[in-house]
Specification:
alpha+beta; flat; Asr1405_Asl0597-like
Length: 78
């Protein structure tokens, strides 16, 4: 049975939304980005939700936050 599709507007800076839009399209995640409108994505699975979170986090987190996350992941893998 196919899971329902959830449409969600993403709160992201206007200057970053086109970059997010294009990256999500590369990941085959349906999304819509019209002029003067928020980015709207279709979340079809948990994997899609994680990918959306990851893409937006890369643009909204500081460099230090991203470094700390990588270091925590690295230490957990050891």
């Amino acid at each position: 049975m196919r899971q329902p599709v959830i449409k969600q507007a993403i709160a992201i800076d206007w200057c970053d939304r086109w970059q997010v839009f294009h990256r999500l399209q590369e990941l085959n995640i349906c999304c819509c980005c019209e002029a003067n409108q928020p980015l709207v994505v279709e979340i079809e699975s948990a994997i899609a939700a994680i990918q959306i979170w990851s893409v937006t986090r890369q643009l909204t987190s500081s460099r230090q936050q991203l470094i700390s996350t990588l270091e925590r992941c690295w230490h957990q893998c050891l």
